[in-house]
Amino acid sequence: MSIWGSSLVKAVYKTTAPTGADIGYPISQNWMDKTNDKSYQLVDITAGVATWKELGVTEVAGGTWVDRGTSTLSGNVLDASAGPGLYVLAAETGTTDQLDQVTGLAVGECIRVSPDTGDTITVADGANMNLRGINFSLADVKSVMELQCTATGVVKEIIR
Q1: CATH fold of 67-159, please?
Q2: What is the mean pLDDT of residues 47-52?
Q3: How many C-beta atoms lie closer than 10 Å to residue 24's C-beta?
Q4: What letter would DSSP give residue 108?
Q5: CA–CA distance from 150 to each of 15, 78, 97, 123 (Å)?
Q6: pLDDT in the model for residue 64
Q7: Is pLDDT above 80 for 61?
Q8: Coil, strand, or helix at residue 23?
Q9: pLDDT tens digit string along 13-22?
Q10: Mean pLDDT (whole number) for 131-150
Q11: How far apart are CA 18 and CA 61, in angstroms?
């Protein structure tokens, strides 16, 4: 699901990227391309042509998704100072942990988080993690959540 404003919008999961012909969706619809590990949002439909914006492309750093490898959580915090990209989260001890905060990002930068093989990471709503009151468990390697930095040390959910 994706969060925009105060409502939950289910993402569309497909094996390809959307095209201009994909017009049967409301504005702000999110589309997950599972084959290429990319997400998009419908931003406009004009004259029967849809415009989809790729999410996760950071305009602050001017780059695209980079595999940041496995990061072990420390005190329920992910240090994302390596910048935007895909972070595989490993539990600090054992196989379960909780993510309460992401540090090291500039405002506007996005990351994707996924659990390490065999780990379960609960992404917890709170002052530094705006999930609109709904915690989310990343329970297998196919579970992915995209987060965007809105203020120093504060992120909001873009899509899950």
Answers
A1: Jelly Rolls (2.60.120)
A2: 92
A3: 9
A4: T
A5: 30, 16, 24, 17
A6: 55
A7: no
A8: coil
A9: 888 999 999 9
A10: 87
A11: 25
